[in-house]
Amino acid sequence: MAKVFSMRGSQEGDIEIPRLKEEENSSFIEVYQENTPNTDKGHDERMKIQLCWDNVSYVIENKGDETQILKSVSGKANPGELLVLMGSSGAGKTTLLNILAGRLKSSSNTKISGQITANGTNIKDLDFGYYSAYVTQEDILLPNLTPRESLMFSSRLRMPGHYKDHVDRVNGIINDLRLAKCADNIVGSLTKKGLSGGERKRVCIGMELITDPIVLILDEPTSGLDSFTAEVVIDLLIEQARKGRTVMSTIHQPSTSMFDKFDKLILLAEGHLVYQGRASESTKYFAKIGYDCPKLMNPADYYMRLLHVVDRKHPTEEEHEKIENVVSAYNSIEQDEGDYDKSKLEPLQTKKLTSPTNFAEQFIILLERSWINARRDPLAGQLLFTEYIMIAVLLDLICNNLAKNYDSSTTRTQLLFMSTATVSFYSCQNAAMQFPNETPLFLKESKQRIYSTISYYMAKSIADIPMQLLPLLIYCLIIYWAIPFNDYDASKFFIFYFILVILQIGQIGVGYILGCMVKTDTVALAIVPIFLQPMLLWSGLFPHVNDYPESFSWVQYFSVRII
Ligand SMILES: Nc1ncnc2c1ncn2[C@@H]1O[C@H](COP(=O)(O)OP(=O)(O)OP(=O)(O)O)[C@@H](O)[C@H]1O
């Protein structure tokens, strides 16, 4: 068994923190590879990646104050192993994962230093997203699709091949992740009952396995799950690792039996690395440096307590001393190259992360996805129908005796204003509510360069149009024939309807812009009037528009003019 760390100057001799035996590891990998269908997107099936990072630091500057979040952290993640990152809240686990995945870059107020290599190639020189996948802590899924549909759309958008290849790939993932029982149930959301937390997390992992990534990185995949479900997720990650993938994950509060399953463990404390090695050897190491985990205690709980600092800006003397001790103990150990046979690692080629589909294919797949998602969410459509019918009936009731003469012209103008205001508000609000819930998915997919923004926008708008046009047609049918706007003739009716359709499409565009600017549909609803109300002031209802201050005159060009 290879020795990895040895304590320099330790009186009782070297501490061995052994790694998995290479022979054990490769036999596992071979068995799994034999049983696994080749769902490859072009990666060599035997390609493996060792991810190494050397002296990685992350500094944030805020109003002249510098905070160092990661402090010269070095380590490696080997193929075929599950590496778990643990540490107290705020220790820097997510930050490290994001840097390793290439998701976090230096900016005007943040600085990343150090080197990260994959099989010896600096990841800056690679499109690392081609080789890796990242499962975020939040579940990013469309609530109205089933797991099978979500995986199918993801496969069709991200992988080349015929429909049958996608079906086979998705079936393989459903089997691997034991999703067969819930594969055809709706995913659901916070407000709509659907899959359980564990099932949803497995679907999210499946969405990333679609591209058969060589490196799989996960941020807290077990958060919010009960210990049994969390263990199922860990078992799946170990299976994925045994297929030869390099799997890294942060885990909060693992149970003892989960902890025993981790291959490798990295412990972070206040941005410092305080342990790296086999999880099963960690208690021995900490006992050696003076922190003996009680026999019946979960080692994970023990480390969390040991490394916890209540107020990171003002640690107590005891906390400070404790962290200093573990950090200096770790820094005093000699690090060895590890036991992974590097001769198996091929240098990586610079491959570009590109979409396998062209614009038309993207548009068709996205249109289908948006249409299913919109069709299964009847609430928005029902709300729009109810709003339009209610206002049309009320207008009819109060104006049913209106004559078509000069005296009624002001009232008829006001009714036109009412119609434009109604269409503007309802269309804009409805459209604004569509985006916030989908923004995380869109941002994730566009970062992965799965499709172009224009194909997404066109598919989404076209899928939403029938839901908007139909209630408007009913509104027009109710009011046009009851109120004497013009001659009662079909062509005039269609002109009336057509003008309101154009207005509606414009307001849907405004709604999309507003929806993209905010994070929740509640905020989207709240900001719509802030933008629309000033526009209505210049709609012509108030005849003295030219008396308005000159500095506001530009608003008229964004307003709906009815006269
Ligand atoms: N952009 C940023 N601006 C300011 N502080 C930041 C930023 N990014 C991270 N931090 C801080 O860095 C520290 C580490 O954050 P990180 O999310 O990596 O912690 P963590 O170990 O994953 O914690 P948790 O387990 O609670 O998710 C935290 O104190 C966080 O507030």
UniProtKB/TrEMBL annotation:
The keyword Transmembrane applies. The keyword Acetylation does not apply. GO terms for molecular function: ABC-type transporter activity; ATP binding; ATP hydrolysis activity. The chain crosses the membrane at residues 379-399, 465-483, 495-515, 522-541. Keywords: ATP-binding, Membrane, Nucleotide-binding, Transmembrane, Transmembrane helix, Transport. Its main location: membrane. It is found in: Membrane. It is a multi-pass membrane protein. This is ABC transporter domain-containing protein.
